[in-house]
Design a protein that fits this description.
By secondary structure, the chain is of the alpha/beta class. It has eleven helices and 18 strands. The chain has four domains: about 30 residues; about 90 residues, 3-Layer(aba) Sandwich (Glutaredoxin), CATH 3.40.30.10; about 260 residues, Class I glutamine amidotransferase (GATase) domain (Rossmann fold, 3-Layer(aba) Sandwich), CATH 3.40.50.880; about 30 residues. It is globular.
Length: about 450
């Protein structure tokens, strides 16, 4: 009797164990199948360094035809590219990723013209572009180049003391030129002194912080260009009368903008916002963290931008123009008209109180279908200079302006970010405290706790 009961009990336990094993195996199999089919992850890093940018997601999800990315690298290093490229594949079923070891398949690498490890060939339809490294900037840049069927050229006006695009010093625009190149914009300099006419291949004309007055023929050329459907970006500094190179009033150019509904005020903004001071910015840098509703700034929510030596704008709609404010200075800002003195009294009753408009975008009705002129005016030019373009969202804002001006609104978004430096910097006293606490205080505390437990049990 007891023997039958024991065997029955053993059989029951064996059945339970078998069922448990089957259930666990089934859960593992299902989990692996779902993980293989639906690759999901959560990025908890502060700057989302393991996530693709909004711009990349917008472009990839909006693909109308298949995209193939072929990554060439050694087998032992393919995982480096796979970590990034798999994120692209997860965005859209139209994306296909191929991995090729050029040492094992040299014929394929030679046919693709690949000479370096870590190269990606991005193909959409019959068009191929090369990404020289496995970074989001290069991969997304290659996709953008694949999608574009025409060359977009940004022309920077020279001859009146503007920021040179080949100057690598702090006031130059060489980093802006490189930033535009990553979005597949060609750049060149043009002079309106030699010939007062905008070249036909200019997609956007940039007036980048002139220190001298524009001659009337040059202003007339810009006026004709925009009013016939051209696009222009005006970066105009306050007319400071300090130092050996004062900034001219440039009345002819500002009168043109006023006729379009943008009055460029002759003042200097001072931002007394304590948040800017915590960020290491002086009062001469206007800190912007909130934006109006416009395609240029709709995706800038949560990003701060800074504008050194800014002037205020006054906007209104004109007969053939529609003008919108992009953003303004903080409520704690003020504007002074004392432009010939290095010392400014913030309590001067003549100062204007903020907030005040810093940037505006406008359209000009040409009367022709799908041929409106567009212009953007910013009361500062140094915010995209080499010394400041890397500040928080400045480069994103510059590219957004260029995308809107060139009618590439689908590209407006936050671009791939460089990996953030998360190193901890400590003083010698802080390092000594960390060493003492980790080598002596913490072990001593653990020893005392253990001794106390032993004593109580004893």
């Amino acid at each position: 009797m007891s023997s039958r009961w024991l065997r029955a009990r053993q059989t029951k336990y064996a059945a339970y164990a078998t069922v448990y094993v089957i259930v666990i195996l089934a859960v593992i199999v299902v989990a692996n199948v779902l993980a293989d089919r639906y690759n999901k992850s959560y990025d908890s890093t502060a700057n989302k360094r393991y996530s693709l940018s909004d711009q990349t997601a917008k472009i990839v999800k909006g693909l109308k035809q298949p995209l193939t990315v072929t990554y060439y690298d050694r087998t032992s290093r393919l995982q480096q590219g796979k970590d990034l490229l798999d994120r692209y594949a997860n965005l859209s079923p139209r994306v296909r990723i191929d991995y090729v070891d050029p040492d094992k398949n040299p014929q394929a690498a030679r046919a693709a013209g690949v000479t370096k490890y870590g190269t990606s060939i991005v193909q959409i339809g019959t068009k191929k572009e090369e990404a020289k490294s496995a970074t989001e900037q290069d991969i997304t840049g290659a996709i953008i180049r694949d999608l574009k069927t025409n060359t977009r050229t940004v022309c920077f006006v020279t001859g009146s003391g503007e920021h040179p695009i080949d100057d690598t010093e702090r006031d130059g625009y060489s980093r802006l030129k490189d930033t535009l190149g990553k979005d597949d914009y060609a750049t060149k300099s043009i002079s309106l002194l030699e010939k007062a006419d905008i070249p036909s291949d200019c997609t956007v004309v940039v007036v980048g912080g002139p220190r001298s007055d524009y001659l009337q023929p040059a202003v007339d050329a810009i006026k004709k260009y925009v009013e016939q459907g051209g696009r222009a970006l005006f970066l105009l500094d306050p007319p400071l009368k300090l130092g050996r190179s004062p900034t001219a009033d440039n009345d002819a150019l500002t009168n043109l903008l006023q006729s379009w509904g943008v009055s460029v005020d002759k003042d200097l903004l001072l931002d007394l916002n304590p948040v800017g001071q915590l960020a290491g910015l002086g009062p001469q840098v206007a800190l912007v963290s909130s934006y109006d509703s416009h395609p240029i700034v709709n995706d800038m929510k949560g990003s701060a931008t800074g504008f050194p030596l800014s002037r205020s704008l006054t906007i209104k709609n004109a007969d053939k123009t529609n003008v919108q404010k992009l953003f303004e200075s903080s409520g704690s800002s003020l504007a002074t008209t004392q432009l010939n003195s290095a010392s400014i009294n913030p309590n001067d009753p003549r100062n204007k109180k903020g907030p005040m408009t810093i940037a505006a975008a406008g359209t000009y009705t040409t009367g022709k279908e799908n041929s409106e002129g567009r212009f953007v005016v910013v009361g500062s030019s140094s915010w995209v200079a080499n010394s400041f373009i890397s500040f928080n969202g400045n480069s994103d804002l510059a590219l957004n302006m260029m995308n809107w001006l060139s009618s590439d609104e689908e590209l407006i978004s936050i671009r791939p970010k460089e990996q953030e430096d998360r190193k901890i910097t400590m003083t010698r006293a802080q390092l000594n405290w960390v060493r003492i606490s980790s080598q002596f205080l913490l072990p001593a505390a653990l020893f005392l706790v253990g001794l106390s437990v032993w004593w109580r049990r004893r």
